[in-house]
Design goal:
Structural class of chain A: mainly alpha
Distance between the termini of chain B: 7 Å
Strand order of the largest sheet of chain B: 7-8-9-4-10-11
Radius of gyration of chain A: 21 Å
Oligomer: heterodimer
Largest interface: A-B, 24 and 31 residues
CATH architecture of the largest domain in chain B: 3-Layer(aba) Sandwich
Number of strands of chain B: 15
Largest sheet of chain A: none
Helix content of chain B: 25-40%
CATH topology of the largest domain in chain B: Rossmann fold
CATH class of the largest domain in chain B: Alpha Beta
Shape of chain A: globular
Number of helices of chain B: 13
Helix content of chain A: 55-70%
Number of domains of chain A: 1
């Protein structure tokens, strides 16, 4: 059944349109950057964009930062939201079930197909943007990595900053006013000690931030070797993939609830937008650590030295929790539901 | 008699307050061509979906091919070919690709020595799509989609075919072909369970009929028994006045050149002799039989989607009911 679902995925023109568009956005941005040589100041716009002019081999990271806030979740929500509801509204679901395909194995096969789509898309984006980056900016020396990174708190702010505003407009910001201590865009206050996480004490947080900051300053001169960079890139890609699995689980669950794939997709996106809004809202800090998008940008931490694991680990656990709970809910719902479409 | 391939007891399905299927006892014997007849919205499709384990019953039991459904539905379905509420296919793929996907989705058991391509070609041939090209299903006519759906139902060489409105969208030629195909399959031992709101279709194809009205099974019987003689004879003559004079008060109804004669002892031969002896020319003389249409119109309301159906239900309260039908049916098939 898994093979059949994969076949359906690759034979569907929509799949390739989605992958193509996702690869296109970073390419467009790259062309603008390469022709104007105007890069956003460090810490502003999408992460890494300011660094790619020095090193095209960093462009995959910049590309992930570009597609992560909106494009990638939309594509994943479309594919996952359509997976069961689409068959349902098309009428093919009933014919699959009487073939017979057991409902559990159908759901599992759908999940696997969505995972393959996510992995494939992330690989495609990274691959094409590497080619684009290196050919437009040259392989260069990725020394500027760490300088370009927002600080740990900045990473959190970047969730809000790159989210609704459509991440990474490579335009010039007013140099003086926009840059407060190299912090993220979106006007998030730099002075927000210990407010970003609810699950760690302020002291832990402070220590972590100091660690991260010291690593930033200590590394300013060191270049990342190609092997090191590749390993970090791989880690980041895996992390982004896992982050998207949470989205996929939400959409897949909704897809078993409704017969409208559009409804399932929009429902999942609504959940993400709500999460994005709450993550940037100090008043919601009690629930922030449990929101699906809370640790989305933690993949940036793979490019710190040493790799800053706290948020990465938390993010992996969080996504695993979402996937397990929602898939169980999807299964419970789908296995007992009347198929009347 | 042969054993039952489908049997339900007290089958009921409620969607919220709406009772779609109400206490239905269905009996489909092996080798039957069973016509499940009812107006739109009378619960036919819900019934079919319950037989296939797509919809779960609120109450009652289902046995298909000797096994309980939905508990053992996974063991039953490989022996069933089904078409439920119109055909469905992936519109961007060709008919062949659709069938191949459907075939590959099935259980591994379906390896019966034939290769997938052979299975697909065979069923396409059977439904008259053997020459179909690589066009996507999106470009198919409704008739072609219907044939494709039928082909999908035949993929696993089923013992039991459950078909919901199989001739929908077909032209007269196609309807004839499908009817012949189902006849052939039935002759080869496949039981055919066919639901339809078209009387003529069921009359032309089926041996047994179940009539459903607003979720209740109001009649289940052999078609021949349903269309039994009324005891009256129909006389057609070019001289109806002469015939009326001869027959006197035995004429129950009279239209133009046709007379319906009641209480004629000796049947058609005796009546024919009587009329000829009195110099009445005859065009024809046959036993009057109830048409299925008469029976069904008598038993069912005018489509349970409409407002009038409730009034109709009130009107015919106390009339023919399901118990009588069941009694007749069970008497016919112990």
């Amino acid at each position: 059944m898994i093979r059949v679902e994969l076949l359906k995925l690759v034979r569907r023109p929509r799949t390739w349109v989605a992958v193509g568009l996702l690869c296109l956005l970073p390419a467009i941005v790259a062309v603008f950057l390469a022709t104007t040589r105007i890069s956003p100041p460090p810490g502003q716009g999408a992460a890494f964009l300011s660094a790619v002019l020095q090193s095209g081999s960093l462009y995959p990271a910049a590309a992930l930062a570009l597609v992560l806030p909106i494009f990638l979740p939309v594509a994943v929500a479309v594919v996952a939201g359509d997976s069961v509801a689409g068959e349902s509204s098309q009428g093919t679901l009933r014919y699959l079930l009487v073939r017979p395909v057991r409902r559990t194995s159908l759901l599992l096969a759908k999940l696997v197909a969505v995972v393959v789509f996510v992995v494939g898309t992330v690989l495609a984006v990274a691959g094409t943007s590497y080619v684009v980056g290196v050919s437009l900016f040259g392989a260069g020396d990725p020394v500027a990595v760490v300088q370009a990174l927002p600080e740990v708190t900045g990473g959190d702010d970047a969730v809000a900053g790159t989210g609704p505003s459509g991440g990474g407009q490579p335009q010039q910001q007013p140099a003086a006013g926009g840059q407060v201590g190299g912090q993220g865009a979106a006007g998030a206050p730099a002075a927000r000690p210990g407010a970003d996480t609810g699950d760690t004490t302020a002291a832990d947080d402070q220590a972590a931030r100091e660690r991260a900051q010291s690593s930033v300053s200590s590394l300013s001169g060191d270049a990342l070797g190609p092997a090191d960079l590749a390993a970090r890139m791989l880690g980041a890609m895996v992390y982004v993939t896992v982050s998207m699995l949470g989205v996929a689980a939400i959409a897949l669950f909704l897809s078993t609830v409704t017969t409208s794939s559009l409804g399932a997709t929009l429902g999942a996106l609504a959940a993400l937008i709500t999460s994005q809004v709450l993550v940037s809202l100090d008043a919601a800090s009690s629930v922030t650590p449990y929101l699906p998008t809370r640790y989305w940008l933690a993949w940036i931490d793979f490019f710190r030295d040493p790799i800053f694991l706290r948020d990465i680990t938390a993010g992996l656990w969080l996504q695993a929790g979402y996937v397990v709970v929602l898939m169980l809910a999807a299964w419970a719902n789908f296995a007992t539901k009347d198929v009347t479409s | 008699m042969s054993r039952l391939v489908i049997e339900t007891r007290g089958l009921t399905k409620r969607f919220g307050a709406h009772v779609a299927v109400d206490d239905v006892d269905l009996h489909v014997a092996e080798g039957d061509r069973y016509g499940f007849l009812g107006p739109n919205g009378s619960g036919k499709t819900t019934m079919v979906r319950m037989l296939l384990g797509l919809v779960y019953a609120t109450r009652g039991e289902i046995t298909v091919l000797g096994r309980p459904v939905p508990a053992k539905v996974a063991e039953v379905l490989p022996e069933i070919g089904a078409m439920v509420e119109g055909p469905a296919a992936y519109p961007h793929l060709s008919g062949r690709a659709n069938l191949a996907l459907l075939d590959a989705s099935g259980p591994r058991r379906s390896r019966d020595g034939r290769r997938r391509r052979d299975r697909v070609e065979e069923v396409l041939e059977r439904v008259g799509l053997g020459a179909v090209d690589r066009r996507p299903v999106r470009a198919y006519s409704l008739g072609m989609r219907q044939r494709l759906g039928l082909a999908g139902a035949l993929l696993n060489r089923p013992r039991l075919l459950v078909l919901d409105e199989p001739t929908n969208g077909l032209d007269p030629h196609g309807i004839r072909e499908v009817r012949d195909l189902l006849g052939d399959l039935n002759a080869g031992g496949t039981t055919v369970f066919l639901s339809s709101h078209l009387l003529a279709e069921i009359e032309a194809l089926c041996t047994t009929v179940g009539v459903v009205d607003r979720g209740r099974l109001v009649l289940e019987d052999d078609l021949d028994a349903v269309r039994g003689p009324t005891g009256r004879l129909v006389v057609r003559t070019p001289d109806p006045d002469a015939a009326a004079r001869v027959l006197g008060r035995a004429v129950a109804e009279r239209y133009d050149h046709t007379l319906v004669v009641d209480g004629a002892p000796g049947g058609p031969p005796a009546l024919a002799r009587h009329l000829v002896e009195h110099g009445v020319p005859l065009d024809g003389l046959v036993e009057q039989r109830r048409s299925l249409e008469d029976v069904v119109v008598d038993l069912t309301g005018p489509g349970s989607d409409t407002k009038r159906s409730r009034e109709h239900a009130d009107r015919r309260a106390g009339g023919f009911d399901a118990d009588t039908a069941r009694a007749r049916r069970n008497g016919a098939r112990p």
